[in-house]
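How a chain folds remains the central question behind the approach discussed here. In the encoding step, the backbone of a single protein was reduced to a row of integers, each denoting a local shape. We regard such an encoding as a compact summary of how the chain folds. The sequence in question and its structure tokens are set out directly beneath this paragraph:

___
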Amino acid sequence: MIPKLACYAMGAKDSLPFKSSLWDTKSSKQNGEEMRVIVVGAGIVGVSCAIWLQRSGHDVTIVDKAGPASGTSHGNAGVLAAGAVVPVTTPGLLKRAPGMLLSPNAPLFLKWSYLPKLLPFLARYLGYATDVHVDYYANAMATLLHDSVEQHRSLAAGTGAEAFIGAEDYCFGYATKAAYDADSYGWEKRKAAGYDYEVVDGATYVNYDPIFGTAFETVVRCKNHGRISDPGKYVKALADHFVSQGGSLHICEVKDVEVVDGEISALNTADGDMSADHIVFAMGPWSKAIAHKLGVKVPFESERGYHIELTNPSQMPKSPMMVASGKFVITPMDGRLRAAGVVEFGGLEKGPSRAPFNLLRRQVAELLPNLRYDEVIEWMGHRPAPADSLPLIGANDPSARSFSAFGHQHVGLTGGPKTGRIIADLIDGKKPNIDLAPFDPMKHSAR
């Protein structure tokens, strides 16, 4: 919670907070006039929305309680995972989940005191663990993610953030060929969705990157993927560019929204009410309460993610590596080696658990026993997790007064730039070249 005195604005347009009526203006892009747009959230999705709206000629303000990249946009694995089209909820998850929760070496954790609150969501979440839904999800997400590297390059062009974007393969390492074969379901789904990958034996991969030695008998190299070398600095560089181009950044907590006849009329912030022609909500897991008030009834939870960083490591991999046995990713960062992964359900209020950090430390030590480094930095953050794993992208009401742009779960960094471009197109009255039905915020609500 940020107290009122902590709220401040940055930017060339010091017109905040907006006090005027939200709907007394006739401005529209189609009439050749700029619109005022507020984007709530300064992660990669919110900043992407803001930049694309700014490039369309609108007067844009970002509102965030802590500032750019203060949450998951800082703490993710840094992978542009264009092929991340297979959800966690695959067939058989219901049978596997209890054993994973009880194993200290499995990447699934639960704060047991949170279970009573979690159960309604969990029932819906596990209900999507079907082959039919996996195909539906894969087809939808392929349209959003397939050109992720190109979308990031377009977003970052001329911003100074280009230097953080790399185009390395995203690799999956399997300790045995049998472990790879056991994972064939996911690889067949990726192949069906049109993704290109190469399967090589461990000895061949060592010729490319010797750091993992004999740890992997089989490695899958996913093509047309990429990496952000410092996700936090990358998003901050984008936000700095947005402000330098005349955008406003308002550091203040949104406490509530005012809704009249099913449509938003104002944001209630710690610094007073704010209004604009359109408001975009990109608050990640903190979007739930406001979304429900706006009629967005998608079942939704916080999925807690963890990472550790090893500073000044003595060895550095050449490409991001998903260690299949532990479902965590080792990613080379600027001056750091990051190990990120783990799923924990425990809500937004409780602090981090010790067990996920310990698991990541053990796994890295086993994988890279000769690695030396200066220190270990630990981080826990929150991923926005809809029950069907599909992000919410689109208008929250028939008049398109407010928009949702959240719920990307594990692929917010990957899908953020394209999400921002889609939102900007929708506000401009353009029809994006993508089927948005799977991402419709109102898909579980009666219009």
User: Anything to note?
Assistant: The CA atoms of residues 100 and 106 lie 5 Å apart. Residues 90-145+164-229+301-386 form a domain with the D-Amino Acid Oxidase; Chain A, domain 2 fold (CATH 3.30.9.10).
